């Protein structure tokens, strides 16, 4: 819950702007109409309290399964082109 530092009422997060993987700006507005304070909070990653169950390879697979089909197709095309280029380079060096 976000609170207004002026009146202590609840505040609404209107927008978030990710600056970095571990840092986000939260643009907020106080819900108390008599106050109406607008402010920015900085949200920063501090530390892990329990490691993820996803190992690096599992995490990569998880991310891929979450992508829409058109993005999966783009990745497949890049990998196929890279594989074809590698095969050409291998044949040209022999």
Automatic annotation (TrEMBL):
Ranges of residues in domain Zinc finger Ogr/Delta-type: 3-48
Superkingdom of origin: Bacteria
Protein name: Transcriptional regulator
């Amino acid at each position: 819950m976000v609170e207004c530092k002026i009146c202590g009422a609840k505040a609404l997060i209107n927008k978030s702007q990710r600056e970095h993987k571990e840092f986000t700006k939260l643009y907020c507005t106080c819900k108390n109409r008599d106050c109406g304070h607008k402010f920015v909070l900085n949200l920063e990653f501090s530390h892990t309290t329990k490691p993820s169950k996803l190992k690096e390879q599992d995490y990569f697979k998880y991310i891929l399964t979450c992508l829409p089909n058109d993005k999966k197709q783009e990745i497949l095309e890049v990998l196929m082109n890279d594989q074809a280029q590698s095969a050409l380079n291998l044949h040209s060096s022999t």
